[in-house]
Amino acid sequence: MINFLATSAIFQTIKDNFQSLNYLLNFSICTALILIVSLFIAIKTKRLFTSLFYVFIDLVFIISLIFSLDMVSITSLVLYAIMSIIFSFINSGILRKYVATPLKNYHTDKKVKNGKYDIEKLIRDVTTATKWLSTNKVGALMTFEKKQPLDDFLKNGITINAPFSPELVETIFFEGTRLHDGAIVIRDNMIVAATVMYPASNKILLGKVGARHRAALGISEVTDSITVVVSEETGSISIAHGGMLDTIKTDEFERVFRNQIAE
Questions:
Q1: pTM (whole model) above 0.85
Q2: 260 Cβ partners below 8 Å, 6+ apart?
């Protein structure tokens, strides 16, 4: 009888350990997948601190399961959930772009779709135009199409289909012309449309931000395009990409723009 009870206890212990190990294994696989996704988004948004936080919380939770530290497990799960909610809210543009954007809209070539063109000349021309707009405090919105077509947004604009040149950009955005409101859309090295309107972003932003900046941020939240914004009031230059809005110094614009257009 004693041997039977001892044997039953051993089997029960083995069963409990197996269930704990199975649970730990399943959780580890799930957290690994979550970690990979969060790490990918964190790298895309250059928020490496968030990645390190997820790694730390995962390790704490797994260790707490091994040593049966219930309070530590619950606390780490709560922190994990809170951080995920905050992270998702802050980077809603990134998440929306990768979750809601149909993959079939993507082209295979990110630089050349309608033929070859001189990317370096485009970068120089964009830099020249942007610096002129900034110096003269001429408000402007220039969106550069990347992998995802912007055809749905072009419908509300005016067709241009002219090669990009600083002189043309300066003329379009000069106050008083009928084309200066809205954005111009550039595909390859061609300005395909002007007066294009975008849905404004509802994201909470610090500082004084105008309608152009919110429109630029709005299009960056739903597409992979990059948009150059020049403030009419201050002449400051910003670039909207991936649901983020970065203010760029004039002497750094060419380098930053080159990195963005080449991604």
A1: no
A2: 226, 239, 241
DSSP label at 199?
P
| DSSP 8-state symbol, 245 | E
> pLDDT digits over 149-204, tens only?
999 899 889 999 999 999 999 999 988 888 888 999 999 999 999 999 998 888 87
Rounded Cα distance between 163 and 109, Å, is: 20
- Which residue in 194, 138, 137, 135 sits closest to 162, CA to CA? 194
Which residues are registered as beta bridge partners of 162?
A: 191
Angle 260-262-263 from CA coordinates, rounded to 5° = 70
**Domain boundaries 119-262, CATH class:** alpha beta
Q: How far apart are the first and last CA of the chain?
A: 73
Length of the chain: 263
Residue 219: DSSP 8-state = H
**Strand (E) positions, 71-157?**
140-144
Q: Is 59 helix (H, G, I), strand (E, B) or coil?
A: helix
Q: Domain boundaries in the chain?
A: 2-90, 119-262
The Cα 92–Cα 74 span in angstroms is 27
